[in-house]
Structure formats: C-alpha cells, structure tokens
Amino acid sequence: MRFETKSGPVVALDDLDIEICPGEFVALLGPSGCGKSTLLNVVAGILKPTSGTIAVDGKPVKGTNPDCGIVFQNHSLFPWMSVLENVAFGPKMLGRADPIGTARTFLSLVGLEKQASAWPASLSGGMQQRVGIARALATYPPVLLMDEPFGALDAQTRSIMQEELLKIWSQFRTTVIFVTHDIEEAIFLADRVVVMKTLPGGIKQQVPIELPRPRDPSMIKSELFNRYRGEIFELIREETLKVFRSAD
Amino acid sequence: MATANSGAKGAGRWGWALAGITLFLLLWTLASIRIGNAVLLPKPHSVLLGFVELLREGSLVGDVLASLRRVIGGFLIASSIAVPLALLMSFFRPLNLLLSPIVSFLRPIPPIAWIPIAILWFGIGDPPSYFITALAAFFPIFINSFAGGNAVRAEHVHAARSLGAGPRALFARIYLPSAMPMISTGLRIGLGQSWMAVVTAELIAAQSGLGYMIQANRLSLETSLVLVGMCTIGLLGALMSVALEALERHVLIPWKQA
After folding, report:
1. Nearest C-alpha in B relative to A71
2. Shortest CA distance to A181 belongs to which of A169, A166, A192, A196?
3. Structural domain that includes position B252
4. Interface probe, candidates A42, A46, A64, A137, chain B, greatest B C-beta count within 10 A
5. Residue B23 within any structural domain of the chain
6. What is the 3-state secondary structure (H, E, C) of B30-96?
7. Are the C-beta atoms of residues A29 and A188 closer than 8 Å to each other?
8. What is the ipTM of this complex?
9. Is A63 an 8 Å CB contact of chain B?
10. Measured between CA atoms, how close is B144 to chain A, in angstroms?
11. Are B155 and A75 spatial neighbours (Cβ–Cβ below 8 Å)?
C-alpha cells in the first residue's frame, strides 16, 4: 500500500492481507512507526492509498463515511456542543428518528446520563473518552475503529475503561479494530492480536487469543495470558530492535 | 487577597477598582489646583457640572446617539463583509493567494489617512463617518476571523464526517464554531477600533456626534465640556466592551467559560 507525500511516494504498509470477520475484536499492536495508525486511517477513509484497496462489507472505502465509527485518542469531542449534543450529532446527521432519545440511551450505557448537559471540557479524560465511545456507537456503525483510545488515561482509569468497553461490546458485537502499543491491553481485549512490523510496515504475525469470554482482570495473572504476553513481547522486541539499529 | 470565597474576591476587586478611580480623581484635582487655569485643566467637579448641564439641555444625548449609530452601523457593515470573506479565504486557497497581497497592502493605512478621500467621495456627515468606522473595524475582524478559519482540528472534521455530516453541516456545525473564539476576539477589537475612529472622523468630517462636540467646545475654549465629551467616550467604550463580553459568554462562545 503506497501513499503520496510531499517528499514523494512512501511505502507505509507492505504485505497487508488481512481479513476481519464481522463481530470480531482485533487489536493492532506494534512499536511506533509500524503504520498501525496509518492502517486504521486507511480503513476509516481518512488516508487514501495510491495503490492497494481496502473494503468494508465488500464495498471499497472512498473517504470518511458512517460505516466506520471512530474513537480517537483524545480531544475529538466537539467542545461547542454539550455532551448530549455530541452523542446526538451522528443520528441527527444520518436523519435517524429521535436522535436525542438515542443519545440518552447511549449516554446511560456509558454511565454518563447525569453529565448530558455539561460541556465536554468540564469532564475528566476518562469521561470524555466514554462520551467519545457513546458518540461513535450511537450511529450503530458496522465497524468501530479505536485509535489508542485509552492512551492518554492513567493506568487505573485505563483498566476500568477496558472492562467497560468489553461490557459494551458484548451487547453490540460490532466489529472492532483497536490500535494500541500496550501488549496487555491488546491481549485482554482482543479475539486476535495482529502484531505489526516495521521497515516497511506491515503484518508480522497474527496471534489468536483464546482466553474465554467474558474476560475478567484476574485473567491477566493466568498462565495462558502469560504465554501470550511472552510470545508477543518477543515479536515486538525484534521489531523495536530493528528500528533501533537502523538509526545507527 | 487569596481569599477562599469567590464572593469576597469579587468584593475585593470592586474595592480595588473604586480605590483606583478615587486615586485618579485625586491626582486630577491636585494637578488642576497646581496648574490653576480652568482652560488648561478644569477640576473634576466642573466637568461633572458640565455633564449634568449638557444632559439637561439634551444635546449630549443627541451627540451620543449620533456617534453610537455611526459606530454600530460601521461595525455591522465591517463584520458582515469581513467574517464571510475571511472564512472563504481560509477555505479556498486560490482566493487567499489572490487577496492576501491586497490585504497586506491596505491594512497598514490608518483609518485617519482615509478621511480626506472619504470626504471627497462622500462629503460631510454620516456617509464618510460610516466609511471610516467600517474601515477601522474591518481589519481586526478580518485578520482574526481568517486565523479562526484555519483553527479547525482535523480530528473534528474526521469525526464529523464519520458521523455522517455533509459539506453544509460540516461548515455550519464544525468550521464555524471552531472559528468562533477568534471571530469573537476580532469583533471585540474591531468594535474598540471603530469607536476610536468615529471620534476622529467626527472631529473632521461631521457636524454632530461626540467628536464634533469636542471640536466645537475646543473652539469656544469650553475645556470642561471638552472633558465631558472625552469622559463620555471612555465610559461608553468601556460599557460596549463589557456588553460584548457578555454576548461572548452567553451567545457566541458559551463553551469557553466552563
């Protein structure tokens, strides 16, 4: 997959054959520079590759569109709209019936119905991300793209948000593509961890995660979890070293 | 001063403001006693008497209204051209490339330098004054709105698109509010500039308004009435700025106050 940039074409992602099944939770994991966010932006239609194709539900992606809900790392709520208006925005734009009612339903799903009339800036980082998730889900997108959504949160909030996300996902079973550089986060959340490689970027290895669902934080201490962690750690270490040495 | 209670803090602020005003009046009185010439610097109380006199006689209200009308008219003309033009320029690069040299060239010319040509074009009275007040307000509004048009965040645009927003919704609900804090700053500065310019315009190109009133009283050596005019300008300018701040807080950018 190639991209035109100001300094000429760049091969950001090589060998990138990946199929994601409906309802699957896939984590893209890798060191920075491996193109995991690039891949997500291509699926979202934010970036347009000059070669290669990507399709959602068999339809080629042409520009940003409501087939893919997006949750960004942070600061993507519209600060000039109340929390409720943010969540109602999608349903309203798509001409759905009762956008406000839908927004209220999704806000209570993420436990923020009391903050409905607040401005986003008055909420904590964790609350803002919950609103971001509610907003992305409120249009019932077939695919939910999450770009390091908990990356800016502290460790405690982060682990609670992971559990919350799984709880919400278990109700919707929408397809999730989740970008992260946190190994434990990827294993804990996903059905399949896709380890990305660098120079050029692409897929190094896919690791199916066979931990039972519903997942529970205590599983992080289990033997199986440890085995995944060890395996994935080694894969990523190779890639990170490659970047590290190429800098000399 | 580090009081925990915000009510006490507010009271403290008023206290300091009052002390500042008192100090100013005190220095003024001392200076006028020292100078000892009411034509050069009358005492504050004779200015107050002049103020009451002009109010009773009714001419002050007429002058204030004439000046206010010119400022608000010019300000509205300037905003209705500057804001859309600046936003269009920030969205369409060719338009920006085409017009920015003209803007850079016209911007450094102070409104006062336009007065002679304004008189040639429009004569004496309201039209040249509207022209000058609009011109004075135009550039601050334009420059800030242009910066505002470029202030939109990519994440907001991507998010809005992925939520189904079309071009019109994108403009009205994403670009415009993103630009609003800067537009609002431009409006505040523009109104101030316009208010300063109206006095200049009326000193030369009008036969009513506060600027004209100041000029007329200077010619008859009524210094205390000159000062009445000046103080009225200061007071009204401060009031307008407070009013615009309230408009910002409640209408234009309420989310910025959280």
Report:
1. B159
2. A196
3. 44-257
4. A64
5. no
6. HHHHHHCCCCCCCCHHHHHHHHHHHHHHCHHHHHHHHHHHHHHHHHHHHHHHHHHHHHHHHHCHHHH
7. no
8. 0.84
9. yes
10. 19
11. yes
What CATH number is attached to the domain comprising B70? 1.10.3720.10
- Looking at chain A, how many residues does it have? 248
B163 contacts A93? CB cut-off 8 A:
yes
Contacting residues for B85 by C-beta, under 8 A, at least 6 apart: B99, B142
Residue B3 in domain:
no
Beta carbons of A72 and B155 less than 8 Å apart: yes
pLDDT digits (tens, 9 = 90+) for B193-248: 999 999 889 988 888 999 999 999 999 999 999 999 999 999 999 999 899 999 99
Specify which residues A56 forms β-bridges with: A59
- Whether B188 is covered by a domain: the verdict is yes
> Do the Cβ atoms of B174 and B160 come closer than 8 Å?
yes
Provide the percentage of residues in chain B whose pLDDT is more than 90. 78
Q: What is the DSSP letter of A13?
A: B
b/e code A168-189 from CB counts within 10 Å (16+ = b) = bbeeeebbbbbbbbbbebbbbb
Q: How many domains does chain B have?
A: 1
B43 CA: distance to closest CA in chain A (Å): 50
Cβ contact, residue pair A80, B258, below 8 Å = no
In a domain, B2, yes or no: no
* Å between B174 CA and nearest CA of chain A: 8
Q: Tell me if chain B has a CB within 8 Å of the CB of A62.
A: no
Read off the pLDDT of each residue in A167-181 and give the average, rounded to a whole number.
90
State the DSSP string of B111-148: HHHHHHHHHHHH-SSHHHHHHHHHHHHHHHHHHHHHHH
